[in-house]
Amino acid sequence: MAKDQKAKAKKEQIKGKAKEVVGRATGDMRAEAKGRAGQSKGDARQAKEKGKDVFKH
């Protein structure tokens, strides 16, 4: 289960970065902001999973 969540977090980070880059390139501030939000969501999910790993060992 944890591997699935870690992969999902990484996917969210990558999608967010792509949206941010496209938004910046096209001048679409909304897409850029959504991209940053997606990255933050992925970062939070990844931190949660790392925290779980600490308590497992």
TrEMBL record:
Region feature Disordered, mapped onto this chain: 1-57
Family annotation (SUPFAM superfamilies): Hypothetical protein YjbJ
Domain CsbD-like: 6-57
Start-end of Basic and acidic residues biased regions: 1-35, 42-57
Pfam families found in the cross-reference section: CsbD
Superkingdom of the organism of origin: Bacteria
Family: Belongs to the UPF0337 (CsbD) family.
Protein name (record): CsbD family protein
Organism of provenance: Streptomyces sp. 900129855
